[in-house]
Design goal:
The complex is a heterodimer of chains A (about 500) and B (about 350).
Chain A (H helix, E strand, L loop, with lengths): L3 E11 L2 E12 L3 E5 L6 H8 L7 E6 L2 E2 L5 H7 L1 E4 L11 H5 L14 H14 L17 H12 L6 E5 L7 H16 L3 E5 L3 H7 L2 E6 L2 E7 L5 H9 L18 E9 L6 E6 L3 E6 L5 H8 L7 E6 L2 E2 L5 H6 L2 E4 L3 H5 L6 H6 L7 E2 L2 E2 L1 H14 L16 H14 L4 E5 L7 H16 L3 E5 L3 H7 L2 E6 L2 E2 L3 E2 L5 H9 L4
Parallel strand pairs in A: 3-8, 3-9, 6-7, 7-8, 13-20, 13-21, 16-19, 19-20
Antiparallel strand pairs in A: 1-2, 1-4, 4-5, 9-10, 11-12, 11-14, 14-15, 17-18, 21-22, 21-23
Chain B lengths: L14 H9 L4 H17 L6 H26 L7 H19 L2 H24 L5 H19 L6 E2 L3 H8 L1 E2 L8 E2 H19 L1 H11 L1 H6 L4 H27 L1 E2 L8 H11 L11 H20 L4 H36 L3
Antiparallel strand pairs in B: 1-4, 2-3
Helix pairs in contact in B: 2-13, 3-8, 3-11, 3-12, 3-13, 4-5, 4-6, 4-11, 5-6, 5-11, 7-11, 8-9, 12-13, 12-14
The chains are: A alpha/beta (about 500), B mainly alpha (about 350).
GO cellular component, one term (chain B): plasma membrane
Membrane topology (chain B): Multi-pass membrane protein
Subcellular location (chain B): Cell membrane
């Protein structure tokens, strides 16, 4: 079997945007090729063309001589191209077995589903790739952990006939050990003669697993290099088109002011006895693995989730916080991690999204005052440099970076004392990131206390005055900035000795 | 595409632009459809433009229109209220009983609206405290409240009520002059309620919060909006307006009607709200759009009657209209989501 995926001069445009142009790559069986690029560089578009989700506008794609130019998802799968999606769709109330075969259940006599064959095949796959014991085929989808969901998605891809397997950010919800297991799998696929595409932001993973790296910037290829002949620095340069200090800007230290937030003995379903404080002008970073309880901590402090004990003081005053509106009255703001799910009302305007936390302040007798809304929102849009056609534009039509700025604008309008930022630069491209860093720095300098949860080490190290590391619902002693190193933080997060 | 139901800064554009801004670009298609429909029916029946028929349409609009105004609040908040017709029936009976007992029309109106409010609060309680999905909750009370209406009517029969003041509310006209048949009082009530609702939806904290919670409940809660208290207020208003609609039914028919005159109106009210541009998923919809759609539906029903189309066909047509209304909304949503995806794909800057 000699697998050969050929991508020739492929282009794809959306009205007003050229998402991909003149992309050519050849891939052979037994090869592991990484695709990297910033958000919006065209990686997802390319994967979606290969998987048949999008039709291409120009060029040709073929797999072992089968043209996939006008392909549908089903044709692409049957030809042997399998995509392991970043966020797998799992049906909650059916078994793992049925989840694996969803849409492709083998039919036996009289159109009845051939469960015996499904079970045989699935069991064989589990054994062959060393996953036996990690998942129960009869388990219901809703009981799966994120890593198990990923496994179901992988098994979907590895069903007979797979020739090219593409992994889209496969490690974002995996632990270190699970990641290593995934790498073993990928090496086995390579040994079996399959071609592997590996899309990831994590360059050290790419250096470890891939043999070639294909780099995209603004929809166009900027490099196709052998891993042995390149370095992380070179890849970053080709991704962003300029040399970049890996740690970005370093925030100048600020003389911290009065204590703004004091959390004492806080416990909840997720947390045990957490105490810390944040001063005015200070940015305290929260590091930790996914699932360590950081997002939950933000929501407990903000009154969205209940706490079982503990006190929260703002400016020295104990506040009763049971709901988010209590928190807002106590001068807190929260920019949640899931911007689209919890942060913004996508179908409403910039104006409404930016002013909704202060509707009561902008009204008299319950009637909103247009002039005051404008006076509040317009300067913020200018100060944050939010790029929007008008204040009436639906927020869903803005880019990720500008959407995040709208969330920030909402809280600035409320002039809070404490701002909780949960993954403030998630799904924001590099240019907008720098701007958001500058904004956060400005805000701290103007006297806000900032609690910043982040999974991006450079961001934590460069922005935080102190870093608190969470592990299994407990926190570490704060690490001051001059003592903070990547190794120390990672060791605290993993619970390994430094 | 700009939204038309958001507050916009005042502009000094021409009159035509101002009218378009008020009506909303998305509602233009409704107006065009209305004009075509009127032209079509008028060409087939010369009676259509007669004073009496126009009055008739205006009166018919009143009851459905009141339900549709409340329904707009409910649907924009991403809920649904199937029980409005049943609430109106119960309120109609209560209104008649109160007027018979006290001889005071004002008390009758208050009684009908108070009952509607209470029933709306019952809906809200089921939805918030018992956490039952609004469709199921109000489908249940759709049946329960209708049963209640029959139970409070002695013997389960219509309650006759002879009060000239009440009659005036239902069938009276004002500004009647020679050559002008006047305006039905019930239509004026609807107009007043709609104008108030329009102002509330557009300019008040309560109104704007309805749009926020309908568009994304999680984000609205994190921005400090109390979803539970919002739902209580929204369903109570829907109930109160259904109560007022019931009062008008009593006034028009001179009897408290447990069923006749309000049955099936939930369908028309829901159709009107969707036809008026609201989204099933919430966060969008305007009073202006709903009122135009109410007018369209009233004209359509009237036209079908004038043209002698049998009732059974009319029922089929009403069903099709609801499907068409929601389908148009879904199509609009898909189009706007495509635009969002493209914007997201365009990514930066």
């Amino acid at each position: 079997m000699s697998v050969h995926l050929s991508i020739k001069s492929v282009g794809k445009s959306f009205p007003g945007v050229r998402a991909l142009g003149n992309v050519s790559v050849e891939l052979k069986g037994g090869e592991i090729v990484a695709i990297v690029g910033e958000n919006g560089a065209g990686k997802s578009t390319l994967l979606k063309i290969l998987s048949g989700d999008y039709a291409l506008d120009e060029g040709h794609v073929s797999l072992d001589g089968t043209s996939l130019d006008g392909g549908t998802p089903l044709e692409a799968r049957e030809a042997g191209f399998r995509l392991v999606r970043q966020e797998p769709e799992i049906v909650p109330f059916v078994s793992v077995l049925e989840n694996i075969y969803i849409g492709e259940m083998p039919a036996g006599r009289g159109g009845r589903v051939d469960f015996a064959r499904m079970r045989r095949e699935a069991t064989a796959m589990l054994a062959r790739y060393g996953f036996a014991g990690l998942i129960d085929l009869d388990q219901e989808g809703r009981t799966l952990s994120p890593a198990q969901m990923q496994l179901v998605e992988i098994l979907r891809a590895l069903k007979p006939g797979a020739k090219v397997v593409a992994f889209d950010e496969p490690t974002s919800s995996l632990t270190q050990r699970e990641t290593e297991r995934l790498f073993d799998l990928i090496r086995q696929l390579k040994a079996d003669g399959l071609a592997v595409i590996y899309v990831s932001h994590r360059l050290h993973e790419i250096m470890e697993i891939a043999e070639r790296v294909f780099i995209l910037k603004d929809g166009a290829p900027t490099g196709d290099l052998q891993i042995d002949a390149t370095s992380e620095e070179e890849i970053v340069r080709l991704m962003v088109g300029r040399d970049l200090d890996a740690h970005g800007m370093r925030r100048k230290p600020v003389e911290p002011g009065e204590v703004v937030l004091e959390v004492e003995g806080l416990s909840s379903r997720w947390h045990r006895d957490i105490s810390f404080s944040i001063r005015a002008g200070e940015i305290v970073g929260f590091a930790g693995l996914v699932g360590a309880g950081r997002t939950e901590l933000a929501k407990v402090i903000f009154g969205e989730y209940p706490r079982t004990s503990g006190t929260i003081r703002i400016d020295g005053e104990t506040r009763t916080i049971r709901t988010p509106s209590d928190a807002i009255r106590a001068n807190m703001g929260l920019a949640p991690e899931d911007r689209k799910g919890e942060g913004l009302i996508l179908v409403r305007s910039v104006m409404e999204n930016a002013s909704m936390a202060v509707f009561h302040k902008l009204s008299r007798w319950g009637i909103l005052r247009q002039a005051e809304m404008l006076e509040t929102v317009e300067p913020l849009v200018r100060r944050l440099d939010i790029k929007t056609p008008s204040l009436e534009t639906e927020v869903g039509k803005l880019s990720g970076g500008n959407q995040q700025k709208v969330v920030l604008a909402r809280w600035l309008a409320a002039s809070p004392r404490l701002l909780i930022l949960d993954e403030p630069t998630r799904a924001v491209d590099v240019g907008a990131k720098a701007e958001i860093y500058r904004l956060i720095d400005d805000l701290a300098r103007s006297g806000l206390a900032i609690m910043m949860i982040s999974s991006e080490m450079p961001e934590l190290l460069s922005m935080s005055d102190r870093i608190i590391v969470m592990k299994d619902g407990r926190i570490s002693e704060p690490v001051p900035r001059h003592e903070a190193t990547e190794e120390r933080i990672v060791n605290l997060a993993l619970g390994t000795a430094a | 595409m700009t939204t038309t139901d958001t507050p916009r800064p005042p502009s000094q554009d021409g009159a035509l632009k101002r009218i378009t801004a008020f009506v909303g670009a998305e509602n233009l298609s409704l107006i065009i459809a209305l004009i075509i429909l009127v032209a079509l029916i008028a060409s087939q029946s010369e009676f259509f433009f007669s004073a009496r028929n126009i009055l008739n349409i205006g009166q018919n609009m009143a009851v459905v229109g009141l339900l549709a105004v409340g329904m707009t609040l409910v649907i924009v908040s991403a809920g649904l209220d199937i029980s409005v017709g049943s609430m109106a029936g119960a309120a109609s009976v209560v209104c008649a009983l109160v007027v018979n007992a006290t001889d005071m029309v004002g008390l009758g109106i208050a009684g009908g609206m108070a009952l509607g409010t209470v029933l709306g609060l019952v809906n809200a309680t089921i939805i918030t405290v018992l956490r039952v999905n609004p469709v199921v909750a109000t489908l249940a009370t759709f049946s329960a409240f209708r049963g209640l209406a029959f139970l409070i009517a002695p013997g389960g029969r219509p309650v006759g009520v002879l009060d000239p003041e009440l009659r005036f509310l239902g069938s009276g006209r004002v500004f009647e002059t020679e050559g002008f048949p006047g305006i039905p009082v019930s239509f004026l009530i609807l107009l007043f309620v709609a104008v108030v609702a329009h102002i509330v939806m557009k300019t008040t904290v309560f109104g704007r919060s309805i749009y926020s919670m309908g568009g994304n409940p999680a984000a609205a809660r994190l921005a400090g909006i109390n979803l539970t208290s919002m739902k209580f207020r929204i369903y109570a208003i829907s109930g109160a307006l259904a109560g007022l609609a019931g009062v008008i039914v009593t006034a028009r028919t001179s009897s408290g009607q447990p069923a006749s005159g309000t049955q099936g109106l939930e369908l028309e009210a829901i159709t009107a709200v969707f036809l008026g541009g609201a989204l099933l998923s919430g966060g969008k919809g305007t009073i202006v759009g709903t009122m135009l759609a109410v007018m369209l539906i009233a004209v359509l029903a009237n036209g079908m009657n004038l043209l002698g189309i049998p009732t059974f066909y009319q029922l089929v047509a009403k069903g099709l209209l609801l499907v068409a209304a929601v389908a148009i909304g879904q199509w609009r949503l898909a189009r706007s989501e495509r635009q969002q995806a493209q914007a997201a794909a365009a990514g930066s800057q």
